[in-house]
Write a structure and sequence with these properties.
about 120 residues, mainly alpha
Length: about 120
């Protein structure tokens, strides 16, 4: 064997030993819970900060529940029932009806020219 072949063999062995050493010495399973690899995720940190400080931001009690209902649940319910009560009779104008069907129900208007009187 030539000197170059021996040098190539030594380099291959050196790289293999180095790789094995790094794999065994620095593998996360070799460290305990207190020394293990710590992963920091900013989204999880924000979620935990919000979750753990919930008592300072807003408490669950009757007063806050009534405020939530008065600002969200009741107005949305009133609007919903008004729209349901009026139904299609609120859209007496054919132009409004055609515009609403065109923009909101485009998938249903494939042959709109054939159905329009």
């Amino acid at each position: 064997m030539t000197e170059a072949d021996l040098e190539n063999k030594r380099n291959v062995l050196r790289r293999a030993l180095k790789k094995e050493f790094i794999r065994t010495a620095y593998h996360p399973r070799n460290f305990g819970e207190e020394q293990g690899v710590r992963v920091f995720d900013t989204a999880m940190a924000r979620w935990h900060a919000l979750h753990n400080s919930y008592e300072f931001i807003g408490q669950r009690n009757w007063k806050n529940g009534l405020v939530f209902a008065a600002t969200w649940v009741i107005p949305i319910s009133i609007i919903y029932y008004q729209v349901r009560k009026e139904g299609v009779s609120a859209l007496e104008n054919e132009t409004e009806l055609r515009l609403i069907k065109t923009f909101f129900f485009r998938w249903n208007m494939t042959n709109a020219a054939e159905r329009t009187p």
